[in-house]
Amino acid sequence: MQSEQPQVVLTGVSKHFGGVRALDNVDFACRRGTIHAVLGENGAGKSTLIKILAGVHRPDAGEVRLAGRPVAFANPAEATRAGIVCIFQELSLVPDLSVADNIAIADPPKRLGLIDRRAQNRRAERLLARIDCADIDPRDLVRDLSLSRRQMVEIAKAIGRAPSVLILDEATSALTARDVETVYALLADLKAEGVASIFISHRMHEVEALCDTLSVFRNGRHIETFARGARSPAEIVRLMIGRDVEAQFPPKPARPARPEPLLSVKGLRWENRLNGIDLAVGRGEIVGLGGLDGAGQKELLLALFGVLRGVEGTVRTGAATGIPSSPAAAKSGPARIALVPEDRKTEGLMLARPIADNLLAASFARVSRGPLIDETLARAAIDEALATLRIKIGSPSDPVATLSGGNQQKVVIAKWLMARPDLILLNDPTRGIDVGTKQELYRLMRELADAGKAILFYSTDYAELIGCCDRVSVLYDGTVVAELEGEALTEEALVAAALNIGAAA
Amino acid sequence: MTRLLAQNRAFAGACLLLALLWLTYNALHPRGFSAAVLVQNANESVAIGFVAMAQTVPVLMGGLDLSVGAVMTLTNCIASAVVSGSPAQIVLGMVLTLAAGTAFGLMNGLVVVYGRIQPIIATLATGAIAIGLALLIRPQPGGSIDDDLSWALTNQLVDFADTYGLAEGGKTWWFRPFAPLPVPLLLLVGTAFLAWIPFRRSITGRTVYAIGSAEGAAYMSGLPIARAKIAAFTLAGFFAACGGLYLAIQTSSGNADVTQAGAYTLNSIAAVVLGGTSLLGGIGGAIGSLVGALMLRVISFYFRILSVDPLLQPLIEGLVLLAAVSLGAVRTLRVRNRLELFR
Predict the structure, then answer these.
(1) What is the pLDDT of residue B92?
(2) DSSP SS3 for A425
(3) Where are the domains of chain A?
(4) Rounded to an integer, what distance in angstroms lies between the CA atom of residue B143 and that of residue B120?
(5) Where are the alpha helices (DSSP H) in A170-215?
(6) Is A310 in Cβ contact with B222 (below 8 Å)?
């Protein structure tokens, strides 16, 4: 079945983003007629790997060979022409165009030089029928389809391009069980046709059922490649975690019993992303949110902060019941809530504005007399915030964009501490931050908890969850699948729960 | 059919509103539903119709072209200098005028794509350049246009045939049903269909929509983004030139009127929105903008027959415009994640 020469070969490929090493001297090969799984934790380098193959990134060093010939793609169009087609996690569909338009987007059938809509619809129908999606009308706009239907359109679009290498990046994450079966059958067909498929999934049972070869990545390195069945799930999990340098965490206080919850959440639902979340956080507690990226952590925090519409379920925050109607209501309710958002550059900071304005943004009311901002009060508040968080700056009037990533994040946190919150929601606050600042943040979190604040802390870094949190609720598919505490809070248990494969270790 | 309606709700609404406005207007007009009124109205609608279509293309891409009115003025002045003489010279002059506007649009596109400048500011600058060139050509209003051409293109189809001795002066049996149609309306609609429909059905046109809808997805799908951006501005230049050429033919002169250029640009944006095109890009089309432009014109016609105080006209126009565009804002009520409102 396997040909002598691998279809795709990477030799010594490295890629850096700023100071972060995303891929480090990676060798990787994928053969025709196989389904090759790539496994790894968040940030292991899987996305960078496939983005290099798909022509989104160019490697800093090393060589990519396709069918024996070295290739260097300038953009995704060149990769597609060479036969490498990628189904991305974030869909590459254009919402305002029809399904048929999207499926044939860059290479539509033509008549007299113009796009032949009828032929295009027929082509879309044929491809959709192949993946058992005859229920999708090619003339519908993509924006009117549900997420799972869109993902099937994305798959139809990919197979319509006749790939020799097909990359599926979490392509089954939103699909229904029936569609997943269809995709399995499709992949088996493509395998028989000699297509090399690279399959990225966080669902271990999918990988076990589908893939011939498994490769594990960790910290931008290719750790090991082996045939299916050669390793047990527990061994695979250990390979994914590896041995890391332990970060220094402040000691956790011993606590005889759980404190009275300040925040309690029951049966929280929103769209199809949150499917009944139960959770409680008490004063003085740091509760972690675990699970893989996209399991609903982000939406949970946004819901609690009043950003989402149509959230169902009961939420009690101190004396207040119900979900805040807006961020403005959330920060000024009886129990004040703060959210340190996921993307500090767009949701956390006004990059071009001075540091001072950014620090004051959530608490102008506190430094104002009547309608006017009191400069003296404002300056005192800013000085206090800068001192508490030890933010290194030139002058408060410099744009916040001039600071390093770590100091920017400190500004976001300081901004919210100025609003004197009772409940602090943190969305991966240490992402892209140097180790020193991380440790400062860990200490700060513990100090805040000791001062009686309740902290809900989402992190993609398992070591952090273990080191910082009193307990961790692990999310999978919008529900809490495990609550880990004390001795049970181990990396193995976190990864196993995140993959929803029960007791793996 | 229901799908077509659902996917083009804004456009269908605009058409309905236009029909309503136009029918009421004619019912109120003492000489309503007459060929003379239709021809006059059509003549006054052509320039704004073309400029609105010009504006549509950059808007679909998520940009804005502030030079469309200025390019119209520039081409108006060029036409007033070159569209006269022998038949061959006239045709050459018209081609030259359209080519000049198209080239100006191409330059806009190159500045935006290779200068990496935001469309709104790039075209603000190039618009001023266009006005400057127009003033160089026509420091004072004037110039001339071939009289026959001017007459033939601003009246009924039968007059066109009569002027150029076509179809036995427009008296053959097969010609008669079309005889009373106003030539300006045919020019407008004809150009719209001959230029816009093929554009929309090309990869370049589709890419313009894709850029406005989700530029990242367009890039990941391997679409020709730079080419589409340049083409969008080029087509805008062409449509603006059509407007300028017609204005010259209609008025038999050229006029580098700065105020008029600005008013046309702003009205073009209003027409685009009225016609159902989203200012965020990705949704809408030039035909809708044409309908929007006609709506704007019909609203202004009302002032004549209702003898509204001219001082009140801007106020009323503003209120009507505000009411019409508010209908399009209803969609934001359906957004579930409020962060999406800011994207």
Answers:
(1) 96
(2) strand
(3) 8-241, 262-336+421-505, 352-420
(4) 32
(5) 177-192, 204-210
(6) no
Q: What is the DSSP string of A271-316?
A: TTTEEEEEEEEETT-EEEEESSTTSSHHHHHHHHTT-BSS-EEEEE
> The domain A8-241 is classified under which CATH number: 3.40.50.300, 3.40.50.1370, 3.20.20.140, 3.30.565.10?
3.40.50.300
Give the residue from A423, A300, A327 showing the smallest Cα distance to B338. Answer: A327
* Of A98, A103, A101, A97, the residue nearest A127 (C-alpha): A103
Best probe of the B interface among A73, A90, A96, by most B CBs < 10 A, is: A96
- DSSP, collapsed to helix, strand or coil, labels residue A155 as helix
Q: Which tens digits make up the pLDDT trace of B2-24?
A: 777 777 878 888 899 899 999 99
Contact A94 B202 (CB under 8 A): no
The length of chain A in residues reads 505
Q: Which CATH number fits domain A262-336+421-505: 2.60.40.10, 3.40.50.300, 2.40.10.270, 3.30.420.40?
A: 3.40.50.300
Residue in this structure with the two tokens 């750790």, named with its chain if needed? A223
Q: Which of B220, B336, B342, B343 to mutate to test the interface with A (most CBs of A within 10 A)?
A: B220
Taking only the tens place, the pLDDT of each residue in B252-297 is 999 999 999 999 999 999 999 999 898 888 889 999 999 999 999 9
Report the pLDDT value the prediction gives residue A292, as an integer from 0 to 100.
82
Give dist(CA A403, CA A389) in Å, integer.
14
pTM score: 0.79
Domain count, chain B: 1
